[in-house]
Amino acid sequence: MAVNFVDRVVLHLSAGAGGHGVASVKREKFKPLGGPDGGNGGHGGSVVLRVDPQATTLLDYHRHPHRKADNGKPGAGDERNGADGPDLVLPVPEGTVVKDGDGRIVADLVGMGTEHVIARGGRGGLGNKALASARRKAPGFALLGEPGEEVDVVLELKTLADVALIGFPSAGKSSLVSVLSAARPKIADYPFTTLVPNLGVVTAGSIRFTVADVPGLIPGAHEGKGLGLEFLRHVERCSVLAHVIDCATLEPGRDPLTDLDVIERELSLYVPDADLGGRPLAERTRLIVLNKADVPEARELAEMVKPDLEERGYEVFIVSAVAHLGLKELTYAMARHVETARAEVEAVVPQRVVLRPRSVDDQGFAVVKENGPDGPFFRVTGDRPTRWVRQTDFSNDEAVGYLADRLARLGVEDELYKVGAVAGDTVVIGSTDDAVVFDWEPTLQSGAELLGARGTDLRLEEGARPTRDEKRESMKDRYAARAATQEELDTERRSGLWHLRDDEE
Predict the structure, then answer these.
(1) Which of 53, 189, 348, 369 is such that its CA lies 20 to 30 A from the CA of 303?
(2) What is the rounded CA–CA span in Å between residue 361 and residue 363?
(3) Binding residues
(4) Are 8 and 59 within 8 A, CB to CB?
């Protein structure tokens, strides 16, 4: 049988990587030292989940679970920045719940147009034009673009409806939806005709609400028997549950009271997602619908068990979807309970937003000593050190030096000293998956700094190029020094301090 409805998929998502910055020098006639003009790389595209009214199933993602956004374009010379990669927007049905690999809820997508960035694109690298400063006027390097995030998520579709029709297979749930609303589900006289939830919009007076025909449940549904878990998932969001009981069934061991007890037990054993704020299914408002009253024997049985069900505290309705009996009373009762449930939801006080600013002494990184198979090492963690390492071109010595300067200014070297690191110790920056390992060499202060800061060019300093008069004076000084030297040599020769060899006559 072809699959045409999917309500749970595993997606492998990859955001786009940022484009690399470029190191370039402006070259123009009569301007041999035009300065850096390398552009920045574009940002990578993000993966965005968006609620789309046209999306009704997750089937497309079941067939193509791997999705990747476009990368950002690299920069170019003449201060040309690379283009940003477009975001990859994935349409999902309303009511989709996003979970991570550990089962934690990441987002609950409710409301048309709701968006959630599930994988963020990498930042583009800076070109040497953006890295230039008063102290670094001629950077010979650029930063690399960051890789995009890669995540594996689970999408679960949970039907958004006010009323759920539940019961055994072939109890007449689809028939009720077809007569209460304009929905036209598939109806047949064999079990499990309904394999997907069917939604219908019902109007009762001034109230409009949605009714979901949930596929049939059987004993053991809470354990997954008969696709029970997939069916019960679509009941979680419904505020009113209507038990549709078949009073005309000929199966042995089946009667309205037994059917109700079996389904109630399955509802009590099913555990909904607590993070969604849903109450246990056994605590929802429940109605009893004794169906197929157009059959004389079924109607007699319904009238017989109705007092017993009312003694249990249920509101009971005897209906017939085929003969359209008792539907008006049932519809208005559903509307009344839906209106009450909506008022309770609107009365809930919205959760207070708590802002937790970063502490003033928070350095933004941490250094810890760990033990590995090759001995102890020091791990540096934090957003900024990890990002800086990803942006560094380790084939460029100047870029590596720039990274060392940034880490030193951040205070990483001071923290390494505090935790006991010495020269030659192994230092790891980043998490376990993409860490960078190197032997630590502390920054030394020596006379090399007198030659100028890293990334500077003395030819570009203001006042470094002499004027014409200064060049003439310098040339006169050189000529005078040469003449003085020549005169000194002649004096020494005449005084006899120089002696010629015999072969130099």
Answers:
(1) 189
(2) 6
(3) 167-174, 192-196, 213-216, 291-294, 320-322
(4) no
Token pair of 1, please?
A: 């049988």
Would you state the pLDDT for residue 450?
41
- Tell me the C-alpha distance between 113 and 286, whole Å: 32
Asked if residue 354 belongs to a domain, the reply is no
The pLDDT assigned to 498 comes to 54
Residue at 32 is within a domain = yes
Annotated binding site for GTP: 167-174, 192-196, 213-216, 291-294, 320-322
pLDDT recorded at residue 84 = 94
Same domain, 390 and 495: no
Instruction: Specify the number of domains making up the chain.
Output: 4
Residues 89 and 26 in one domain: yes
Range of the domain at 209: 163-346
* Amino acid at the residue 190: Y
Are the C-beta atoms of 344 and 283 separated by less than 8 Å? Answer: no
Low-confidence ranges of the chain (pLDDT < 70): 1-7, 159, 182-197, 215-234, 271-279, 345-362, 432-433, 443-466, 496-505
The answer for residues whose C-beta is within 8 angstroms of residue 504's C-beta and 6 or more apart is none
Question: Which residues, including other chains, have CB under 8 Å from residue 405's CB and lie 6 or more apart?
Answer: 454
Q: Taking the CA atoms of 378, 382, 386 and 388 in sequence, report the sign of the dihedral they define.
A: negative
Query: One-letter amino acid identity for 344?
Result: E
pTM, two decimals, is 0.67
Chain segment 446-485, per-residue pLDDT in tens: 444 444 555 555 555 555 566 778 878 887 887 788 888 8
What is the amino acid identity at position 117?
Answer: V
Q: Is 4 domain-assigned?
A: yes
Q: Are residues 78 and 53 in contact, defined by beta-carbon separation less than 8 angstroms?
A: no
CATH code for position 382: 3.30.300.350
